[in-house]
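Curious: why these numbers?
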Amino acid sequence: MTAQAFNLWVGGQEKPGHAEQIPVEDPATGEIFASCHAASAEDVDEAIRIAHNTFKAGTWSKAPRHVRAEVLDKTAELLTAELPSLIPLEVQQTGRAIREMRAQVPTLVKWFKYYAALLRTEERAVLPTVGKLHNWIDRVPLGVVVQITPFNHPLLIAVKKIAPALAAGNSVIVKPSELTPLTTLLLGKILKQAGVPDGAFSVLPGYGATTGKALVEHPLVRKVDVTGGTVAGRAIGSIVGGNLARYTAELGGKAPLVVFEQADIDVAVNGIAFGSFIASGQTCVASTRILVEEKTLQTLLSKLKTKTESITRRMGSPSNPESMMGPLISAKQLKNVEALVDDALATEGEALVGGRRMSGTSGLDGTDFSKGYFYEPTVLVSKSGGDILKTRIWREEAFGPVIVVAAFKTEEEAIALANDSEFGLGAGIWTRDVAQAFRVSEQIDAGIVWVNTHHRNDPSSPWGGAKSASGVGSENGIDAYQAYTTTKSTIISFASSEEALATDDWFREGAGDVRYG
């Protein structure tokens, strides 16, 4: 089968890139099914200058807010029409189970609709200035903004960034992950058809060390918004800071999920399975550190083992609607997960279930697991005489379907263990005691805390980290929109000429009081 070739999207049209060709692999089979042009430094400079000129021309940046709102609403309509082609492609490039993508991708229209509604309803402040002055605050777009998106949720995370940035009137350039660039490229045609002017939206695939570096270093870029790992996020932030540009970063996570005795254990086990194994554990808020009140530990472990084995038994081709979980994204990611699990098993831990790369064929549909990067959903606990809390995997982000389970005796201990991490993105609490839910959620250091649920994501709800290793700033909500703007204060004097001459002539002859400030 001939691999389909994809180009860059620049200035409202497809253009060939002048760097290397990027092979796009199906993680379930190891086959290269497409290729994509990477953007060279020259391609990056051209795209940024086109975006900058478009911004200065005002065709989008100065368009009335209601016009931009109508374009975002039209984007939602067109995106819905393209779902039958977008979803299978998203499945193929990510390896995510199609049942996940059929649930996730249709929700993306909510982001465009939300920011369209925000544009129509947002109120601007008029400030109580002293004297005959009228002072109002406006929000104006920044200019060219660069967005760097990861492999795990290509469309979701791209849309979460694109919608508020375009709503604010910026010119947007997206660099998708080199592992999953294809569906983001297809957004170019959708946005053009919806009415986004040529030059206001571009997609430049490429590798981080080359294309990404050229983008974030460019002096015309006024904001960078990245989702990725902590190391990369810090490196990008240092470059962006040197240009005095704005920066938002959603980075690493090692989310605790705390189960108290007061929880409904069956409901909590379902929540753990979803929070831990959705997207094969490749999410920044995956519940990877499960903390269970000691009195209920054995009951929960028994039920969790049964649930996890059920998931494993029903794994197969990601395109099979009955398959529960797909592979990891790449051989590199598989090796990382294997290394962390093997280290835990060799030291302090043991596998209650899982702990190995999958081989053989699927009992569900005959998929050959050995061709892809499938890893068993895994639950790790302390071995006899060991302490799982001393392992690397307790602290390091594995980004795979692996969870660590540990016990606690008191609420105070649970909070201490939950906060025992450099990360602070997401956290979960399971209890039917409402007072306890409020009490504990206030003390957990995380930007997002879910109670009796996990991984809920709404365009109106801010999404960001509470500790530096998890990033700076927030996606979603009014916060994200405002982060793509800068405030502009306008003060108008409506004093008469006589009043102005009497109070505002600072250098007039003679004595007398004059205004200052």
Q: What stands out?
A: The chain has two domains: 40-251+471-489, 255-461. The chain has a mean pLDDT of 97. The domain at 255-461 is CATH 3.40.309.10 (Aldehyde Dehydrogenase; Chain A, domain 2).
